[in-house]
Design brief:
Layout lengths: L3 E6 L3 H12 L4 E7 L2 H11 L3 E5 L7 H6 L8 E6 L3 H9 L4 E3 L4 H13 L7 H8 L14 E5 L4 E5 L5 E5 L2 E5 L4 E4 L3 H7 L5 E5 L2 E4 L3 E7 L3 E6 L4 E3 L2 H10 L3
Parallel strand pairs: 1-2, 1-3, 3-4, 4-5
Antiparallel strand pairs: 6-7, 8-9, 8-12, 9-10, 11-12, 13-14, 14-15
Length: 254
């Protein structure tokens, strides 16, 4: 069995300590980080690049599914979820072929999960399956108190930017830059991730490289080639594509 570099995430100290004890008994794993919350987990997944991640579902700030949805790596890790959820939630995981550990679990069940991952080596996280669960009937059960905020990592903390503050998000090289009226932040995500996560009644993707906050549209100028120049509340100017210009007319009802 290949050696796995493992990251675990659980907001409860006794659960983290138990997981550490169990993993120490398994020769095929090396624990590289134990995260105390979803933000911590996501940051260290991107920096340490583990190939196996155990995520608790119920974590404050960013739950396990949201962490998985926001992983942006060229080589995605295998992910196993830990959950104490109800029967219908477990069925959602099984239907989407996502591995999970039902709390409380023992060493034997943990070994089985690791063996299953090893047998499917090379098969990383499938984010489409995560998206399906987040759209399902259990989504409200796992919704976090910060569901309408974007976590912005800084040197020693996370700044939470409310959706209403987001003027636009633009592609910048292999990352994206999020703009508010006063500042901008470089984030290690893709524009597709934000398009899936942000509510469609508040945000609109105007072209391949930019999403705008509809409440921050200050002026729309008729532009060349049946397109629009959109002036935002921070005075940024964005040109919509022809296809998106047609949709924009309907979205803004003019």
């Amino acid at each position: 069995m290949p050696k796995f570099r493992v990251l675990i995430a659980d907001d409860e100290l006794p659960a983290r300590n138990k997981m550490k004890r169990l993993l120490k008994k398994i020769d095929s794993v090396e624990l590289i980080h134990a995260a105390e919350n979803g933000f911590d987990a996501l940051e260290h997944i991107h920096s340490l690049k583990p190939n196996l991640v155990f995520l608790d579902i119920e974590m404050p700030g960013m739950n396990g599914l949201e962490v998985a949805e926001n992983i942006e790596l060229d080589e995605m890790p295998a992910v196993v979820f830990a959950t104490a959820y109800s029967e219908h939630a477990i069925k959602a995981f099984e239907l989407n072929a996502l591995d999970y550990l039902l709390k409380p679990f023992n060493e034997e069940r943990l070994r089985t999960a690791i063996e299953k991952v090893a047998a499917n080596q090379g098969t990383g996280l499938d984010k489409e399956k995560i998206a399906e669960i987040l759209k399902s009937e259990i989504a409200d059960e796992i919704k976090t108190p910060f569901a309408n905020k974007v976590p912005i990592p800084t040197r020693d903390r996370y700044k939470l930017v409310d959706y209403s503050e987001v003027v636009c998000i633009e592609v910048e090289e292999r990352s994206v830059r999020l703009f508010t009226k006063e500042k901008s932040y470089l984030l290690n995500h893709t524009l597709d991730t934000f398009e899936r996560k942000l509510p469609s009644d508040q945000f609109f993707r105007v072209n391949r490289s930019c999403i705008i906050g509809l409440k921050h549209v200050k002026e729309i100028v008729i532009w060349f080639g049946n397109r629009f120049k959109i002036i935002l509340s921070n005075d940024k100017e964005v040109i919509s594509s022809r296809e998106k210009s047609k949709i924009l007319k309907q979205v803004l009802k003019f």
